[in-house]
User: Fold this.
Amino acid sequence: MKMKNFEWKSFGEAFWEVSKSSGWVGILGWILFFAFTQNRVESRIMTLPQFMGKASLSQVYLPPWLSSKAKYEISNIVLKENFLSPHVVPLLYAQILSLPWIDEVKKIKREFPARIGLSFSVRKPVSQIQIHKLAYYIDSNGVPISPTYYTSLSLPQIQGIHTLDERKKLKLGAQMALLLKEFSSFGLFRKAIIDLSYVHPEKNSWNPGIRIISENGCIIEWGNFWKDREGP
Assistant:
């Protein structure tokens, strides 16, 4: 069987050839065809629902220790762009990452016809601190978070920090809290106090002195803080 050779033509060339062979009837048919299909395609695009976080995120797993405020924020994200817009994914990425309790946005994928799949990690508190009568949770990186995004958690309490700008001490407190978590099965350090009053990161030779007071009153001290104490 001999195959025909196909020649690609532009739309204008094809339209002109069909019009010459079929006359005004052909031209009218082309006009009606494109008018019908164009309207149908446009209505299809316009009727695609805009991305509504509440509808699309209903099946996203969220840790039980997140508060209703955090769940409300993530489930009520609404994009102003149409689902088919190329800006949907970067806009959604920025919106989710702006939430204080979000640690990392791992993946955003459009799932046609009108659904978006998300994968992200949540900042989990490891300790708590109170500064000027305001309470904060501290994550594993030493970053403070508002407690309004979490349920009531039993975490070690950091003391000896007076401002949120003391980043090195906050990081040290978070590291100590993670270390104490290894002993949580004993029930002694779940609500322990991590006292960093004798930690001086501004000194050139920083050798921190740390005191830990367990729930049953047991005191553990180590580091180079004895010379900073008053008295003999």
